[in-house]
Specification:
Length: 727
Amino acid sequence: MNAITIRKAATALYDYPKYWAECYGIADFLPMSRAEMDTLGWDSCDVIIVTGDAYVDQPSFGMAIIGRLLEAQGFRVGIIAQPDWHTKDPFMALGAPNLFFGVTAGNMDSMINRYTAERKPRSDDAYTPGGRGGARPDRSSLVYSQRCREAYPDVPILLGGIEASLRRIGHYDYWQDNVRRSILLDARADILLYGNAERALAEIAHRLSLGESVECMTDVRGTAFIRRDTPDGFQEVDSTRIDRPGKIDQIVNPYINTPEMDDCEQQRRLAQQFGIDENGLQIAETRATKLDREKTVIRLPSFDKVRNDKALYAHANRVLHLETNPGNARALVQQHEGRDIWLNPPPIPLSTDEMDYVFAMSFQRVPHPAYQDKKIPAYEMIRFSVNIMRGCFGGCTFCSITEHEGRIIQNRSQESVLDEVKDIRDKVPGFTGVISDLGGPTANMYRLACKTHEIEAACRKPSCVYPGICPNLNTDHSALTQLYRETRALPGVKKVLIASGLRYDLAVKDPEYVKELVTHHVGGYLKIAPEHTENGPLSKMMKPGIGSYNQFKKLFEQFTKEAGKEQYLIPYFIAAHPGTTDEDMLNLALWLKRKGFRADQVQAFYPSPMATATAMYHTAKNPLKKVTYKSDTVESVKDPEQRKLHKALLRYHDPSNWLLLRTALIKMGRSNLIGDGEHQLIPKEQPEEASVYTAPRRKNSADAHQRRTHGKKILTQHTGLPPRIRR
């Protein structure tokens, strides 16, 4: 079954017959108390969403977009936001839901929300009124699910969101430094929804409303559940037979996106495998097409094996990432202590009409009135921003987008985006005419896609832009350029800024887009993410070389000058990423000094569950290539002192780092870089005030910009819905 057939088979979100409770109409806010339910005339909720975030009725917040979607299907939806988890009582505040509990940790993974990259507790939480920390437990989705089970043992529990999505199989846990089993088992939930969950949620809700048992729902895409045997009619394939760690037989490998073949050869073989010729047309049936991928399941190494064998962990990570294309992905299964965790293929991406339907819900665009005047920092940051698309085909190994949103871009129509901007203009308090962001996971992937659905359905490459831009990828930014122009022409809109991360290697393919962006949509600073300058770490990140950055910088400066503006390009970088040596970081520091950059804030690599770079960090193997016990080692920075050194090199200009850097440079045999010369990194003398050194601050500093925009990325990493996260 090819991608077109699959998409036609998926029921559109707006085609379901509405549940009978639609007669109650649309609530101003989804209720958070029995008193609100009474006002609405409800005797019960059909669905209750439990979330680790404060309830903000705005489409960048997961509980709002899922709640409003289910409401539009006719269901009565209640919200339990940031409950006290020490007892089951807060989970009983709205009574038992008629259909199910939907449980999520919130827009962010609760562990990343709570701890820094150095595993130190944070004192704040951007998703909590007043920004206070401690309003949610560690591993929130797990704890909330257990409390729901205690409160109402017979009510089905659906587990979703970024936290559950990235823990759907055995996964390395950075905070415990070991491999944990699937969160589905620990949470005692009935089913796990991974990725953007609207399609799966709508289907499950309607099937439950018709009396079907959740245990019978084993055919919903984008779900994981527990089963004890392989169903009749399925062909089970051992993953180690198709990508075996160890000595490899010379056989045709279905994962043929390896460096040994050029792009053309890869596309030719992939197309043949799926019965498609080089022009995207169907060809005669081949041996490969006789395999029914819809009835094939790949057995990953068991939890016990990946916990105890790092090569098998890296192998399992590789196989999982190669089974992410909805057009050709097969089901996966992994045994956990006698029980199988079964993962159905990823959800079918939403069409533009469905995306418009989701974002056209009756959002109030403000926090629930229960919070009164308490500010919610995450909301304050994004209340004037618009998400125009989902997904990312960049494939950066440290990123969580592909694992959660997928690599196929899901676009809203221009009309839908313009309607939301008007809604912000007319409804959101404090709007001054400035749209703070018109973007998504990546600012400039709007309406970019493979040249045909057939090739897209066959492709198994982890990235469309690495090691170079695929010739099958459309890079025409004209639809986005037109959207920018139409948005800033709206009455009442004075300025439209672009704050989402820009994929500069794509942007340079369309200079007209760069000119439009630089001339009209930069607020003094434009963030950009080369991440590093050295090929070693860049190859482990799947990021382009620094040459692409230089091309974009040249265009940026040219169009800035033509516009007669004073604007600056702000690059930012990752310290201590797998594959990074001390010498790599030193070379980056020297590059920064030559270019005159002084980063006030730096970020160290943060191993999030299930990311490819995290597998590198844990196993010292490279899942981007075939994994063997003898394959090359990927060095990772784990020692706290070395991590501190790598961060210090990014802040070479800070006198408080000079003592550490002097010691390191001498040890590295690079004492020639100590001195007051133009080409030396740090001075010989230590100023007395170094112990109380504070980085200079200015209102529009690059540091402030980085903190704003980095927070914005994290902000929309929401519950099984459309996140915008890169880290």
